[in-house]
Design a protein that fits this description.
about 425 residues; alpha+beta; 5-stranded antiparallel beta sheet; about 25% strand
């Protein structure tokens, strides 16, 4: 828009229009010959036998040749590398004769100094009025930038693939190391307990991290055996360190005083002094510790145990029933300088099994939407279905159950079963 009081000069407008038209007309003055010779791509025409009849300046400059040495003296294949000649004879020329045209073929032409130039070739056969082939018109596009891009892309893909393989190898080595370390935190085998059967299982939710669940069975004296199972707060190397400390502390405490409450009290003191007192990163665990004392005279096993904030153990009886052994009020181990732990006693008769587990089992996510927890009651019902079976069979059934959860199981789970063999073991059928 013009300023107030000012109007465009019609003579100036006409002059600008005339200048633009003149510039455009100047562009149109380029002859067809000039456009052919200075095109941004190479042009050449050959006879049907390949003899070069015409070539533009652009292509001659790429080749480093003069027109007199090319036109009528060289064939199109003379411009190609050895590999290009072979491809031209076996693929390019037959397809061109069959189809009448061919486009976008990647070849290499050779310069006078021996250097190679990657190009894209397109050719079409010109026919006469009676349909006979007269000559071949060919367009040559410089593909050096494209070849460089493709080479860089190939290098990048190769580097990415090598990085991926290296990452997979590193991950495999890490998983192997973690598996060995995890196994070192668990007993290689459970000892033989006279008059009893034992079985255990450890499910690792992720091979890329160390879990904090633990269990053990060990002899205390000539009559009694100790057992424990628990879950350390957290994951990774620090959790593994706490697991190792917990295992050896409970073993040492049991040899000093096998009373379950006393053993957990000693563990509480050790963990609190090591990780909680004066620390901004407190560490603790839940645990069940107990002793079993088989009595061969009456065929039963006396069980004494105590719990520190851990889910209650389950007793599956030979008559097909199952129930929790209540241990209410037990505090987490290591949180407070002094903690209350709940004790309980029971007796296992032939066919009875004591089942200990960590909360990875009861907190597994189930259902199609993976929003419901498996829960205590479902586990109790499952234990009742397998009541009367020996510990190895119960643990195997639970291991199969864990695998059935699939992605719904995102926490490690430890299982431990101790039972008294039935005189005539029979497998109960599931309803």
């Amino acid at each position: 828009m013009c300023r107030s009081g000012q109007y465009p000069d019609p003579h100036e407008a006409d002059h600008e229009k005339s200048s633009s038209s003149a510039a455009f007309a100047a562009l149109l003055e380029d002859s067809a010959e000039e456009l052919y010779e200075s095109a941004p791509c190479g042009y050449l025409s050959t006879l049907m036998d390949g003899t070069i009849a015409r070539v533009n300046t652009t292509l001659l400059n790429w080749l480093g040749l003069d027109r007199e040495g090319v036109v009528g003296r060289m064939r199109f294949t003379d411009l190609l590398t050895v590999g290009g000649k072979l491809y031209h004879e076996t693929h390019f020329a037959p397809l061109l004769r069959m189809q009448g045209e061919i486009s976008g073929i990647a070849l290499e032409i050779k310069r006078s100094d021996g250097a190679r130039v990657p190009v894209l070739i397109s050719s079409v056969i010109k026919h006469g009025t009676t349909g006979e082939p007269l000559l071949i018109r060919t367009t040559v596009f410089d593909a050096r930038d494209r070849r460089a891009y493709e080479a860089e892309l190939l290098r990048s893909r190769k580097a990415a693939e090598e990085a991926r393989k290296q990452a997979e190898a590193d991950r495999a080595r890490l998983q192997d190391a973690l598996a060995v370390l995890q196994q070192s935190l668990l007993p290689d085998t459970l000892p033989v307990v006279p008059g009893m059967e034992t079985a255990a299982y450890y499910h690792t939710a992720s091979p890329d991290r160390l879990g904090g669940d633990f269990y053990d069975v060990f002899p205390i004296d000539g009559k009694r055996f100790g057992f424990f199972l628990g879950d350390v707060c957290g994951k990774g190397p620090q959790a593994a360190a706490i697991t190792s400390l917990t295992r050896y502390t409970l073993r040492a405490a049991a040899l000093h005083d096998p009373d379950p409450v006393s053993a957990l009290t000693i563990l509480n003191k050790v963990l609190h002094e090591r990780y909680t007192s004066g620390s901004n990163d407190p560490r603790y665990c839940t645990a069940v510790f107990g002793t079993v004392e088989p009595d061969s005279d009456i065929g039963q096993v006396a069980v004494h145990l105590a719990s520190g904030g851990h889910p209650p153990v389950i007793i599956a009886r030979a008559d097909g029933t199952a129930d929790f052994l209540p241990t209410p009020g037990g505090l987490l181990v290591g949180v407070l300088p002094t903690a209350r732990f709940t004790a309980a006693t029971t007796a296992l008769a032939p066919g009875d099994t004591l089942l200990l587990y960590t909360d990875g089992l009861t907190e597994a996510r189930t259902g199609e939407d993976r929003t419901s927890l498996y829960g205590d009651e479902a586990l109790l019902a499952f234990a009742a279905e397998h009541a009367g079976k020996p510990p190895p069979a119960v643990i195997q059934a639970l291991a199969d159950l864990l695998h059935s959860f699939g992605e719904g199981l995102d926490d490690d789970t430890a299982l431990l079963a101790l039972g008294v063999p039935a005189p005539n073991p029979q497998t109960r059928s599931s309803p």
